[in-house]
Specification:
It is found in: Membrane. It is a single-pass membrane protein. 22% of the residues are buried. This protein has 6 helices and 27 strands. With 402 residues, the protein is α+β, with helices and mostly antiparallel strands. It is rod-shaped. The structure holds 2-acetamido-2-deoxy-beta-D-glucopyranose (6 copies).
C-alpha cells in the first residue's frame, strides 16, 4: 500500500518518496471510485481488475487501509490482494486495483466491494464489481517449428492466463511422447509487466514415423479444470521407396511401378536411357505418396533387364533397382495351364535345363529370401497404415490441418 502511495506521489513530483511524505493539498474533494461493474473470468485463470479512487483528505487520517471484500462489508474472506496495475495516476487518484487468482465457478463469482479503514472509521464505496466465472475456453498456444527427420526439434506449449496463482500442470499426449526418449521441461517466466507465463518445452529427434501424428498439449488448473490444444505434426523427410515397387513384362509391354513417399512430396524419375517417345509415364499422388508408372514396349525393356527408380525431394533422394519380371500368367491368360501359374517352378525348370542343379539351388534360395522380404515388407506397411487410420479417426474432429 505504501509503495503504491509513494508511486502516486512520485508520478506527481519527482521528489524522493518516503513514508512520511505529506499529502498534497487540494485533490479528491469527495469519495469516488472508478472500477468496472461487471467482469467475466474463465475458470482456472485469474482476473486483474483495475481500479482508482479519490477521497477527501480532510475526512481521512493517515494511515488508511484499502480493503476489498466479497459480499457484506465486514467479511474478510477470501483475502483479496490489492495490487499495482495502473502506472499513470492523476494526482488526486489512488489505486485500488486487485487480483483474483485461481477462479472457480461457485467460489470466485459474486459481488465485490471496496472500503477504506482508518483509525476506528471506515468508508464503504457504494459501487461494486460483479464477477462472473465461465468455463475455460482459452486454449494453450502450441509453438511448433518446422520438423525435420533426424533433427532434434523443440516444441513449446504456453498455458493461457498470465497468473501468479496455482501453477498449472502441462501435459503432452501423442505418439511422440509415447515411444521415444524425449525431454520435457516446464517453466514459469515473469515478464517485465508482471505477467506470469507458464510453458512447457518438449524436445525430440523426429523421424518420418511421427509425420501426420497428433500431438496434444493439455493444461490442468487445480486438478480439474482442463483445456487442450491439438496439432497434427508435419515432419519433413527424405524420400523412401516402397517395397511394392516393381517391373513386369507381358507379351508386348513392360511396365514399371515405383511407389515413393516423402515430405515434401518427392519427384520420381527413371534414368532409363530411353527417349520420351519410347515410353509413357503416369504419376498419381495420394497424401504423401507418389506412384509413377512407365510403360514401354517389351522389346525395349526385356525380361531380367534392370531399371532404376529415383525419388528426390529437397531433403534427399532414394533409389531402387527393379528387375523386369514376368507377370503372373494366370491373371492375364486363363488358357494357360495351372502349371504355368507358378512362376518359380517355370523358372526353376528352365534353370535346370540351362544351368544345372547348382543354379536351381541358388535360385530357390534367392526366391525364398526375396519372398520372405516381400512378406515382411507387406506386413509392416499394413500395420503402419492401420495405425495411421486409427489415429485419423480418433482425432478426426479435433486435428488441425494447416
Ligand atoms: C452486470 O451483471 C449483472 C448480473 O449479471 C446484471 O444484472 C447487470 O445488468 C450487469 N451490468 C452491466 C453494466 O453489464
Ligand atoms: C523393404 O524391405 C526391407 C527388407 O525387408 C525393409 O528393411 C524395408 O524397411 C522395407 N521398406 C519399406 C519402405 O517398407
Ligand atoms: C503411349 O500412349 C499412347 C496413347 O495412349 C499410345 O499410342 C502409345 O503406343 C503408347 N506408347 C507406349 C510406348 O506404350
Ligand atoms: C532371364 O530371363 C529369361 C527369360 O527372359 C529366363 O529364361 C532366365 O532364367 C532368366 N535368368 C535368370 C538368371 O533369372
Ligand atoms: C535421416 O537418416 C536416415 C538414416 O541415416 C537417412 O537415410 C536419411 O536420408 C536422413 N534424412 C535426412 C533428411 O537427412
Ligand atoms: C518375380 O515375381 C515373382 C512372383 O511374382 C517373385 O517371387 C520374384 O521374386 C520376382 N523376381 C524379381 C527378380 O523381382
Amino acid at each position: 500500500m505504501l509503495s503504491a502511495l509513494c508511486f502516486g506521489v512520485m508520478m506527481m513530483s519527482s521528489i524522493e518518496c518516503s513514508m512520511v511524505q505529506p499529502e498534497p493539498k487540494g485533490y479528491g474533494s469527495k469519495f469516488s471510485i472508478s472500477v468496472p461493474s461487471n467482469i467475466t473470468v474463465e475458470a482456472g485463470l485469474c482476473v486483474k481488475v483495475s481500479c482508482t479512487f479519490t477521497y477527501p483528505p480532510s475526512t481521512i487520517t493517515e494511515p488508511y487501509e484499502r480493503v476489498w471484500f466479497k459480499g457484506d462489508p465486514p467479511n474478510p474472506f477470501p483475502e483479496i490482494e490489492v495490487i499495482r496495475l495502473i502506472y499513470m495516476l492523476e494526482p488526486s487518484e489512488r489505486e485500488c486495483s486487485f487480483i483474483l487468482k485461481d477462479a472457480r465457478k461457485g467460489r470466485t463469482d459474486g459481488e465485490y466491494g471496496f472500503m477504506l479503514k482508518w483509525g476506528n472509521n471506515q468508508h464503504v464505496f457504494s459501487e461494486t464489481v460483479h464477477i462472473t466465472v465461465t468455463g475455460i475456453s482459452s486454449k494453450p498456444d502450441m509453438d511448433i517449428p518446422p520438423l525435420t527427420e533426424n533433427q532434434s526439434d523443440t516444441l513449446r506449449c504456453t498455458a493461457p492466463g498470465y497468473c501468479s496463482g496455482t501453477t498449472p500442470t502441462i501435459k503432452w499426449k501423442g505418439k511422440a511422447v509415447e515411444s521415444f526418449p524425449y525431454v520435457i521441461r516446464q517453466d514459469v517466466k515473469e515478464t517485465s509487466n508482471g505477467a506470469f507465463i507458464h510453458e512447457s518445452e518438449f524436445s525430440l529427434i523426429f523421424d518420418s514415423t511421427y509425420h501426420n501424428t497428433v500431438l496434444t498439449c493439455m493444461i490442468v488448473y487445480m486438478d480439474d479444470i482442463i483445456t487442450e490444444q491439438h496439432v497434427t505434426l508435419i515432419v519433413r523427410y527424405a524420400p523412401k521407396i516402397e517395397n511394392g515397387s516393381k517391373c513386369s513384362i507381358s507379351e508386348h509391354l513392360s511396365t514399371c511401378v515405383c511407389i515413393s513417399h516423402g515430405v515434401p512430396l518427392p519427384i520420381i524419375t527413371w534414368p532409363l536411357g530411353l527417349t520420351s517417345q519410347d515410353y509413357n509415364m503416369t504419376t498419381s499422388v495420394s497424401d504423401d505418396t507418389v506412384t509413377s508408372t512407365i510403360t514401354t514396349s517389351a522389346a525395349l525393356l526385356r525380361g531380367n533387364d534392370t531399371v532404376m527408380c529415383l525419388s528426390k525431394n529437397e531433403l534427399g533422394q532414394a533409389s531402387m533397382t527393379l528387375t523386369v519380371n514376368f507377370t503372373k500368367r494366370g491373371e492375364e491368360d486363363p488358357l494357360q495351364g495351372p502349371g504355368h501359374c507358378n512362376l518359380p517352378w517355370t523358372l526353376a525348370s528352365l534353370s535346370v535345363t540351362l544351368n544345372g542343379f547348382l543354379f536351381l539351388g541358388l535360385f530357390l534360395l534367392v526366391v525364398a529370401w526375396k519372398r520372405s522380404k516381400a512378406v515382411t515388407g507387406k506386413e509392416e506397411s499394413q500395420t503402419y497404415s492401420s495405425l495411421a487410420k486409427r489415429d485419423e479417426s480418433v482425432y478426426d474432429t479435433i486435428s488441425q490441418r494447416p
